[in-house]
Amino acid sequence: MQRTDSNGEEEPLLADEEHADQHQTFAPNPFAHLPVYTTIHRVHHEVMASIDDPYSLEQLRAPRINVAIVRPLVDRIWDHEDISIIYCLLVNRLQFLRGQAFQAHQTINTTRANLCELVALKILRRFDEENPGRKGLLLLAKILVAGFEPFQNAPEDVVRENNHVIHWTIQNAGGYERKSTALEVAILSESKMFLCMPACQKVMQAVYVGKVVYTPSSFIDILPDHYKHKPIALYRPNKAVLLNQYRLIVPRTRNIMDIGQFILLLFLYILTMKHRNGVDFTMYELVFSVYALGWVLDEFASILEHGWQCYTQNLWAFLDAMFATIYLVYFALRTHNLATGDVRSGAPALNILSAGAPVLIPRLAFNLLSENMLFVSLRAMMADFTVLTLLAVWCFAGFLLSMLWLSDGSHTPLTISKWMLWVWFGLDATGIERSGEFHWLIGPILMIMFSFLGNTLFLTILVSMLTSTFAKIASNANAEIQFRRAVLTFEGVKSDAIFAYQPPFNLLALCIMLPLKFMLSPRWFHKINVAAVRVINAPLLVAISLYERKHLWGSPKSKMRRFLAFWDFSRFSVHGDIQAVFEFDPPRSVMDQIYAAEDTSGQIPYVTSQDFALDGKPPARSPLSRGKTRKDSFGTVAGLTEHLSEFLHEHGGGDIRDRLEALGGGDY
Prior knowledge:
The chain is mainly α. The chain has 30 helices and 4 strands. It has a two-stranded antiparallel ribbon with strand order 1-2. Helix 12 (251-274) packs antiparallel against helix 13. The chain is globular. 28% of the residues are buried. Residues 1-24, 602-641 and 663-668 have low confidence and may be disordered. Pfam families: LHD_TRPY1, YVC1_C.
């Protein structure tokens, strides 16, 4: 059975999502009315006015500064109807960090950047605490993954002056171009404290497993299909079609598929190198070349999806880039070999390809042990090592030129470089022994100076840098791991249709579907693209659908699952019941008893500004009604101090205002 939508398109009654209107053609942006431009500058002004002195992050989180600066700033900025406030705070953090790069002698901008992150953390936590359940999860998802642009709702003259910056996009996405999310800005600004907070992790976990679905924004799509836009929503697998092609862009599914693709690539690579033949083009090499070309295309599309800066935040991005470079050099030489019939170019191509083994083997370990501290720190240490090595090559190039000129052609630059490299790593003293061949006096002096500066000074600095980097990462291991999870989640949600085709089918999609994009209407291209994706990935889509219908949101355990759970040896522990009591949420009857006990106990009730009428008296509430869940140590809403003072006077508790002022909080 079919029906006709508002665009005249026939769709099955079982729509792709739980609501039929979730896939409207270029659905209007529900957050287009938010004053993002004004809020960004308002936050910038508030932060600049709040901080004039440099503080460390620990000092900002201290109780006194928290009460005097951070919490009042949160109360001034927070608006429960403006979900763009987190995005605006993180944009300001990124700007302050960029300003700090030009003022290395001052740390005031670093303090302001940390303040922006801290305020964003507290506001997101407030949203989380005041919006429990699935509706709260959806709200948090909108806060973190909804797309905004800095010039949204800016004055017309501002838009005209910055027209060259705003209208850079080359693809039409129905008003969703140039959008970036709070999660993306948090990754760019490396807001690791923000990303590792529970509310943020809850959303990222929901996005990672596919509970929260949305259409991400992208820089450039190789195969764009923006006929229908998927808004941010909670996914209900029981109401979705069996062949739901959108589940291929779920980060968890993408991660499993990427690992499978890489294992297949490694297997084909080993077969190719084992049966290599510089003269003949073997069948193993043909299959590997085609599949690897599709894999490189997938990596290239990933770079275009969110840009090079986000792509390189991935833990194994540098390994993928290195192997892609090695393969493209091999592919160019091998293609030239086959086109010209030059047999001599076949062996060098395979020799270059053999250099990919040191890259492919550890890459699999990075995939499987991505949360191991050794691999997390290795990426940062490799970056420091590369920078210092390039600086050393630059600094010591003068020694090479001096000895080359002194040798007067008796030694080649390669030979001199080899001697210097051995001295650099302390492997051999041939360069020192034969330095007299350059000049009887100047040659030994130059080589000994190089040995002292390189082998002693630079290597000592290198070891110190790597030790400091590892210690810094290890001291904040949880934040580093959560940051890598955020990067993996953000990069896993894809909008480019090319990702729905697994290598090497993406090569066929590039050769067939891309020309059709310019020949067909957006509606018919979307229909053909969806049909092709569902046919190619039918077994995988069925397996995903069946699994998610039983496990995505959790379901009552069947007899078989209960039987298998009994034989779960990880649960055989003396204190296993302590862990099991927190695995499922308590029933409604238990929560009602908890709420009633809180409301009827002799403790000070939690009061909000909405709980006060105009006469200052709190309204009557049902014993089982549940208000806000926040229980801050210091109140900041109007009227709270007076209410608590009267309450404590009646019960002999003294004046609460005197106690608060004694803590240094000032006026509340």
